Amino acid sequence: MPYKILEKRELGGSGIVFEMVLETPLIAKKAYAGNFVLVRINETGERIPLTIADYDRERGTITIVVQIAGKSTKLLFHQNVGDSILDVVGPLGNKIHIKKYEYPVVIIGGGVGIAPCYPQAKELKEVGNKIISILGARNKELLFWRDKMGSVSDELIICTDDGSEGIKGVVTEPLKDLLKREKLSIVIAIGPLIMMKYVALTTNGFDGLPKVKTIVSLNTIMIDGTGMCGGCRFPTIDGKIGFACVDGPDVDGHIVDFDNLLKRAKRFEKQEKESLELYDRECKALKKFYKENG
After folding, report:
1. 24: phi > 0 → left, psi -120 to 50 → alpha, else beta; which?
2. Fold of the 105-217 domain
3. Which helix (H) or strand (E) holds 291?
4. How confident is the model over 47-105, as pLDDT tens digits?
5. Helix, strand, or coil here: 221?
6. What gap in Å lies between CA 166 and CA 210, rounded to an integer?
7. What is d(CA 31, CA 220) in angstroms, rounded to the nearest whole number?
8. Strand ranges across the sheet with 250-252
9. Angle between the 172-181 and 193-202 helix axes, to the nearest 10 degrees?
10. The Cα angle at residue 251 between residues 140 and 118, in degrees rounded to 5
């Protein structure tokens, strides 16, 4: 059954991040923060795991946020309102554990990872938690959903690497200040692997700071999404093996071997680059054909 695209809009000013609202009544009915879906655009497309960034049970929709990074995400970007996506499977993965904590909850979103932070902040806020959100990106053009995150946060901190908005620097700087300032119950970080690595290091008793339970999302390493391919396996520092799609995607950040994951994240770089270049050439050839032939 195809799934209709009801809304589509670009986010920020980068031109590479966009959101889509999909008509998925059964998935919306069961969706919670932490869940993801597998999206396949057409019969020859690959399956892409995307975290559910928002859901509306009454309307029967979910929202996904995508950053153009390769062929499949660019092909998804070229779909428009009214078009349909062939497969949307979910909700998959484990929903996060929602409860009232004694001390504030810190939620950190980096880049496109800001999107899946929203439902986590929303659900944790609904049960009475104090939410401190930190949003980070390379520059202000890559920031989005400031108002949405602000609506579910008691305090909102913005960082950019180049200082074009908010604090100049990385998300761990305000995190260190918070750790010195007050007691925290839990830190949730979603974003690039390198960001999550340093957040987990910072909250693991780094430089005399208090140790705080930290959850990270490993959705970026998933492939199959159902536990069969083994592509999302991740080693832990105690020598065990976990699987992001069935054990997560949200897991204890203090046990993840991030150095191993950072190396593995580059294993298909060459193939992904070649696939994107071929797709771009095909698009240019088609545009030229249609221009010349009306």
Report:
1. beta
2. Rossmann fold (3.40.50)
3. helix 269-292
4. 888 999 999 999 999 999 999 888 888 888 889 999 999 999 999 888 888 999 999 99
5. helix
6. 25
7. 19
8. 167-168, 155-160, 131-137, 105-110, 186-190, 214-217, 250-252
9. 20
10. 40
The alpha carbon torsion through 81, 26, 111, 159 (nearest 10 deg) reads 110
Which one is the CATH code of 3-92: 2.120.10.30, 3.40.50.300, 3.90.1180.10, 2.40.30.10?
2.40.30.10
Sign of CA dihedral 167, 172, 173, 177: positive
Question: Locate tokens 């057409």: which residue?
Answer: 42
User: Which amino acid does the sequence have at 216?
Assistant: V
Contacts 24+ apart (CB under 8 A), 13-18: 13/140, 13/141, 14/141, 14/142, 16/67, 16/68, 17/65, 17/66, 17/67, 17/68, 17/112, 17/142, 17/144, 18/65, 18/66, 18/68, 18/77
User: pLDDT by residue (tens digit) across 221-246?
Assistant: 766 666 666 667 777 777 778 777 77
132 within 8 A of 157, measured Cβ to Cβ: yes
Instruction: Give the C-alpha separation, 96 to 286, whole Å.
Output: 45
Three-class DSSP category at 3: strand
Q: What is the domain partition of the chain in residue ranges? A: 3-92, 105-217
